[in-house]
Amino acid sequence: xxxxTLTFPGASGDQLVARLERPDDGHWSTALFAHCFTCxxxxxxxxxxxxxLVDEGVAVFTFDFTGLGESEGDFADTNFSSNLDDLEAACRxxxxxxxxxxxxxxxxxxxxxxxxxxxxxxxxxxxxTIGAPxxxxxxxxxxxxxxxxxxxxxxxxxxxGGRPFRxxxxxxxxxxxxxxxxVIARLSRPLLIFHSPIDDVVAIDHARKIYDAAKHPKSFLxxxxxxxxxxxxxxxxxxxxxxxxxxxxxxIRPPDVVRPxxxxxxxxxxxxxxxxxxxxxxxxxxxxxxxxxxxxxxxxDTGPNPYEYLLGALGACTAMTLRMYADRKGWPLGSxxxxxxxxxxxxxxxxxxxxxxxxxxxxxxxxxxAGPLDDAQRARLLEIADRCPVHRTMHSEVKVESTLVPxxxxxxxxxx
Length: 416
Description:
The protein is of the alpha/beta class. The protein contains 11 helices and 15 strands.
């Protein structure tokens, strides 16, 4: 299994932390998974369901909503509507990163969220919920009972799952303003409802109301004996993942599995772009990297930009060269940190540049070496940094030869 941790901008501009997990040998579908209220992508049930789906060939994208888990932002500023906006942002990011999600999956309030947001995502082919509420006034009432001071104050602290959270009156107003069952009636996607008959957080009657509101095709599966968070028996979560993958094949025809190209020889790189946008997939050996531009430059920020890759190459080469030299000398070099930045400056502002007009590229490289090294050793390592192969390449004459390769039927297939 391949697991990547990444960040993307949420609807409010905060950086949200996500995890993309997929099979080593390719996937046939992709799911976007929304976790429960005040939970995170690292809830054991979320991890177990995701792993079970990955085992069945489904790539899974999970993330922490604004103000939760590892994501930025203030939870008190969020509400159900902002969660839907974050889900839309996650869908767009996943589409640029890998492909559009075919399945929306949500647990508890995350289940209500995927039901509410599905009509905004025409790319989604099916929806599934786990222990989801059928209306959000239910949650508003629960929160109001937990923090009765909200009746007189705009903000209060409430204990949820043994952890303190600050919530505001606007959250309750937003929850009460939702018309979830009306949205479910317009869903027009296959729906699978998982619910435990002994759920003591969201009663089983909510599953019936969701089922009654939805149009066919719709299915209900009882999670007999399971608790709301699916923590008591790990097999409950694994069962959901396996069953969900089987159900998906009825509505999401498994295409040819998306596989990486055969590993390239060392020294060769393959870059592939989509039909639009700046996002690119970079294949180097058996490694898959992403390249893009930031949002303010028209990209989707799914990966470093080309200059950041250039800086990374120089920084990595610098650190490797210092390590090789110190090891050969037997010097006590500890960790190495190289911080780089790139800018274009006026040639007249560069006292030691041969170019005297226009602009020149300037890369700054700050090198930090740890370990009990003396001053002479440190000075020598700074000299050696300029001898790294990438540094030398950048300072030597470089000839780039380009040819336009005729199009072929295999152009759209990474395997060729």
